[in-house]
Design a protein that fits this description.
Length: 461
């Protein structure tokens, strides 16, 4: 390598290194010039009567959690702030064309924005990131924050609920005459929002308010309130809570389809009650423990428990009634009137209707009776001689009467007790039908309190 080549290489290396050195030197001079004699406790205005105009925006990143018990909404946000500092401007041509620099936020004046409805110990922004400073004096600061805001949770229709939560931002020490805050848009920024598996945002708006507090009646304070209308996704609770409760309700009704003679009615009822009790112990933490209102799902579980206990009581009555007989108990007239004649007709229970007079006469005096039924011999055929006596209507009626008397005397005790026994069994059927009807109507009425169309909400205005 000759001497000229080495000189050219050295000049190229020096030119590469000289650029960063000069740029770093220019930025150092600029920062020293800006912060010499600068005070971060003084508002950046030309005159004391002027107000600093701050543009405020909220970017919602993630909805972390909603604590229904403590009524706290935890969210991940970025608080965007822009204002102009008249003491921090320069000519880019004097400092190597530098138009923007980044300086620590702790070294400059900042509006003391706080979350008014804060539910945690920290009202202000904790993480002090750097600010972007332009040569015109315009400052942009987008610090991240974890806000824990208070929100009045209405759990009446839980888990099919719709919540309206808000975040109220404003300056703590500067009134509206010293610092004016304006929302940068009518809605929060959701461009980087990460969807939640439990909540979906149906509407979101921002409003600016002017409030006169009792401590300072002549000084209006400004705040910007962001409202979020959140709809809960109930799939988790439907699969893990509602469907199991519906299955328990189905088993409760299945108890009355089990034959009483099997002797397993009480076993099935107690098994369902124990299963429901264990299930309630497992899912009790999923239900908001608040006394402001009884959640819809809590009502349903309460009714399910009442159904199971009521089914056990009705089962005891059914078993007791099943083992009653006409020889031990006499059915009162009012029970027969209510449970056998009135209620079955109201419920269109056709199997309990008393046979008509014609049907009873047909059962008593069958028209197709053959004379061989009395004598025991085969009936005469067309080739057999038929006595004219048997063709006499009076004789035929006498034979039919003798047959009826014989059958009646043969099963006298059975015939006397069977209608009464059937009456007791019909009473049991009415008990079962009434209880099953009560289960269906009450179970449906619990969820009928929820609006049919959950999407038909009132938007924020």
């Amino acid at each position: 390598m000759n001497r000229s080549t080495v000189q050219i290489l050295l000049l190229w290396i020096l030119s590469v290194l000289a650029g960063p050195v000069s740029c770093s030197e220019a930025e150092t001079r600029l920062v020293k010039k800006l912060f010499t004699g600068y005070s971060k406790v003084v508002r950046p205005v030309d005159h004391f009567s002027d107000a600093v105009v701050v543009s405020v925006g909220l970017q919602l990143i993630q909805l972390i959690s909603v604590d229904e018990v403590n009524q706290i909404v935890t969210s991940n946000v970025r608080l965007k702030q822009r204002w102009r500092d008249v003491n921090l401007n320069w000519d880019p041509d004097d400092y190597g064309g530098i138009r923007k620099i980044r300086v620590p936020s702790t070294d400059i004046w900042k509006p003391d924005l706080v979350l008014y409805n804060n539910a945690d110990g920290d009202f202000a922004i904790i993480h002090q990131t750097k600010v972007l400073l332009e040569h015109t004096g315009m400052i942009t600061w987008n610090p991240p924050a974890i806000f824990k805001s208070y929100c009045e949770i209405i759990v009446l229709h839980f888990p099919f609920d719709l919540q309206n939560c808000s975040m109220k931002l404003g300056t703590w020490t500067y009134d509206g005459l010293l610092v004016v805050i304006n929302p940068d848009s009518a809605r929060p920024d959701l461009s980087n929002f990460m969807e939640s598996g439990e909540w979906v945002l149906k509407d979101y708006r921002s409003w600016k308010h002017t409030v006169n507090y009792s401590c300072c009646p002549n000084k209006p304070y400004l705040d910007i309130t962001y409202h979020f209308l959140m709809l809960r996704l109930p799939l988790y609770f439907i699969v893990n809570v509602i469907i199991p409760c519906m299955l328990f309700s189905f088993l409760t009704g299945l108890v009355f389809y089990l034959p009483t003679d099997s002797g397993e009615k009480m076993t099935l009822s107690i098994s369902v009650l124990l299963s429901l009790t264990v299930f309630l112990l497992v899912i009790v933490e999923l239900i908001p423990s608040t006394s402001s209102a009884v959640p819809l799902i809590g009502k349903y579980m309460l009714f399910t428990m009442v159904f199971v206990i009521a089914s056990i009581i009705i089962t005891v009555i059914v078993i007791n009634t099943h083992h009653r007989s006409p020889s031990t108990h006499t059915m009162p007239a009012w029970i027969r009137k209510v449970f056998i004649e009135t209620i079955p007709n109201m419920m269109f229970f056709s199997t309990m209707k008393r046979p008509s007079l014609e049907i009873r006469q047909m059962r008593m005096f069958p028209t197709d009776m053959d004379i061989s039924d009395i004598s025991g011999n085969p009936a005469p055929t067309s080739d057999t001689y038929v006595s004219p006596i048997t063709k006499n209507p009076d004789v035929r009626r006498a034979i039919e009467g003798v047959k009826y008397i014989a059958e009646t005397m043969k099963s006298d005790e059975e015939s006397n007790n069977k209608p009464k026994l059937i009456a007791w069994q019909q009473k049991l059927q009415v008990y079962k039908l009434l209880f099953l009807f009560w289960i269906k109507q009450t179970r449906c009425s619990v969820f009928m309190r929820e609006p049919l169309d959950r999407a038909s909400f009132q938007p924020l205005c």
